Amino acid sequence: MSKINVRDALLETGMQVFHHQGFNATGVQEIADGAKVPKGSFYNYFSSKDAFAVEVIDLYARTSSTLGILLDVTLGDATARLHLYFDALIAGRKQRSFRAGCLLGNLSTELADQSELVREKLAVSFADWSRVLEDCIRQAQHAAAIDDRIPAATLAALLLNGWEGAVLRSKVDRNDDALQQFRVLTRELLGPPKA
Amino acid sequence: MSKINVRDALLETGMQVFHHQGFNATGVQEIADGAKVPKGSFYNYFSSKDAFAVEVIDLYARTSSTLGILLDVTLGDATARLHLYFDALIAGRKQRSFRAGCLLGNLSTELADQSELVREKLAVSFADWSRVLEDCIRQAQHAAAIDDRIPAATLAALLLNGWEGAVLRSKVDRNDDALQQFRVLTRELLGPPKA
């Protein structure tokens, strides 16, 4: 394998394994085995397991942001796109039978107090995600399609954090109750201006 | 120490340590050391680390439910009590400088796929918590103090899951932004009936 391939294979494997069993339950040996490279080479590419997690978060955020195309502000009807986006997120959860959850959420609860490096990366990743939602919501507010009593940035945070809570709950309940309830929330918060 | 004291000391220690560093990062040895008992005696009281976690969740739920007195349906003005309750939850998070998070939420993301025993206990604990909120919300809806377009059970789930998401986010951001935004959500969802 070329250097780039080894690095990518380690990150891809790390993303899968961290997503399914978390950070602390996963050893560097297991990641190296999964990527079919010797354990020693892990440290040729990453200075520590924490530094590796930061790059895994980056890869996950990039992979997940593919869906963000649905929120692209150059497309029309921002409200319809927001609802489409949340439907797509829910479909993704169903496809995985509500398991694994959101890797950002999982690493947040597990590592925020354990690694300052990881905590800072997670904070930036959530802020980036929230901004994409905020831009789309603001566009809908400007078009007077969504009530603007609550600022777009606050609505984006409520939807993002509400989503994280719903994913957490559906992982525990292993059904889509919390996700359907979350759709009630999106309809409440993204409703048209009140007369 | 008496048998009951050893058991309680192990559970108290487990609750503290799991809350601060999670389940997989904590060994039985560390819990036994913290409780000042020999490691061997851990297995006299608990058949496995998973079974121990189930009892820790029970202890945490009982400890946390003390605040539930604020939601007691025999007291007056259900809406005021709901707002008081969320203020108290937020004050608790500030007191801990936004660290540790909610133990139920932490164990959910970390263990729901790893231990069926723990997953089921978490599902029941969240359902119990949601029911306390639901009863108080229903009381306020009956008094026509809260809009009843959305059923009390759904509102309770949205608030509970929204709370879990807000706690997760404030743990990552290490500030109260997400908690203050959550207060916007409570005011939205617990508003008076629309004319």
Radius of gyration of chain A using CA atoms only = 19 Å
Task: Tell me the overall shape of chain A.
Answer: elongated
Strand content of chain A: under 5%
Record field, number of beta strands of chain A: 0
Proportion of residues in helical segments of chain A: over 70%
Look at the helices and sheets of chain A and give the structural class: mainly alpha
Biggest sheet statistics of chain A? none
Average pLDDT reading of chain A: 95
| Assembly state (oligomeric) | homodimer
The most extensive contact between chains is:
A-B, 46 and 46 residues
Note poorly predicted spans of chain A. Answer: none
N-to-C order of helices and strands of chain A: HHHHHHHHH
End-to-end distance of chain A: 63 Å
Description of the structure:
Chain A starts with a helix and ends in a 6-residue tail after the last helix. The mean pLDDT of chain A is 95. Chain A has helices at residues 3-21, 28-35, 39-45, 49-64, 78-95, 103-111, 116-142, 152-173, 177-189. Chain A contains 9 helices and no strands. In chain A, 71% of the residues lie in helices and 0% in strands. Chain A is elongated. Chain A has 195 residues and is an all-alpha fold. The longest helix of chain A has 27 residues, at 116-142. The relative contact order of chain A is 0.11. In chain A, helix 2 crosses helix 3 (39-45). At the A-B interface, helix 6, helix 7, helix 8 and helix 9 of A face helix 6, helix 7, helix 8 and helix 9 of B.
Outline the fold blueprint.
The structure is a homodimer of 195-residue chains.
Chain A: H1 3-21, H2 28-35, H3 39-45, H4 49-64, H5 78-95, H6 103-111, H7 116-142, H8 152-173, H9 177-189
Helix pairs in contact in A: 1-2, 1-4, 2-3, 4-7, 5-7, 5-9, 6-7, 7-8, 8-9
